[in-house]
Write a structure and sequence with these properties.
Blueprint: E1 4-9, H1 13-24, E2 29-34, H2 39-46, E3 50-54, H3 62-72, E4 77-82, H4 87-96, E5 100-103, H5 108-119, E6 124-125, H6 127-139, H7 148-158, H8 163-170, H9 174-188, H10 193-202
Parallel strand pairs: 1-2, 1-3, 3-4, 4-5, 5-6
Helix pairs in contact: 3-4, 7-9, 8-9
Length: 211
């Protein structure tokens, strides 16, 4: 099995080293720390599977840097370590549609869990991040224009259930679930499930727990 290569971008050596040690505990993980000013060059040279960036601990404009990385390397997985109290930065990062969002106070176990899930094509939001987004959007009266049934289905989608499973749980047909799903996506102006999850968290429609 090909090792999973992760690059960590942070200007502090000790932070890079700590994250590297945590992830190296996982089988098949190969981790390297890089400086953010050389990050794009190192991505091109090493062709990593994933990068982890502590967005407020780099000298460059993190939003612009990550936007450029996503444009140049669209298949690269990106996890952001962010201060959950900085809602302005967090909302801007959510707009980028990254693969994972973790609080800077993330535990060893959650960091490892997030890396594995993101590598396996899942979106990951730490409980603290999703909770902060939910509270912020609720307090600022975000428009929740979904029906009660649509919100219910949306939460099940966020929990990873498919149309058939949701239909069985709610005692409705798979076609009915699909119709609700299409209506939800139309109302939120998204085109696929990852966009749906990110937009729903931004609006405070769902909160993803630490499962």
């Amino acid at each position: 099995m090909k090792p999973i290569l992760i690059l960590i971008a942070n200007r502090f050596f000790l932070t890079n080293y700590a994250i590297s040690c945590i992830l190296r505990d996982l089988d098949g993980m190969r981790v390297a720390g890089v400086s953010e000013d050389k990050l794009i060059d190192e991505i091109r040279r090493q062709n990593p599977d994933m990068i982890i960036v502590e967005t407020d601990m780099i000298k460059q404009d993190s939003i612009r840097l990550l936007k450029e990385i996503k444009r140049k390397f669209p298949r690269l997985k990106i996890i952001s370590l962010v201060d959950p109290s900085d809602m302005f930065r967090l909302n801007n990062l959510l707009d980028l549609g990254l693969d994972g969002y973790l609080s800077k106070s993330v535990t060893k176990e959650e960091l490892q869990r997030a890396a594995l899930r993101v590598y396996n094509n899942e979106k990951y939001f730490s409980q603290e991040i999703s909770g902060k987004i939910f509270d912020y959007k609720f307090k600022n009266s975000v428009n929740k224009n979904l029906s009660k049934r649509e919100q219910e289905i949306l939460q099940y989608i966020a929990e990873g259930m498919n149309n058939k499973e949701i239909g069985g749980l709610l005692n409705i047909s798979e076609f009915t679930v699909l119709t609700h799903r299409r209506n939800i996506m139309r109302k939120l102006n998204v085109k696929n499930t990852p966009q749906l999850i990110i937009e729903s968290i931004k609006r405070g429609l769902i909160s993803i727990g630490d499962n």
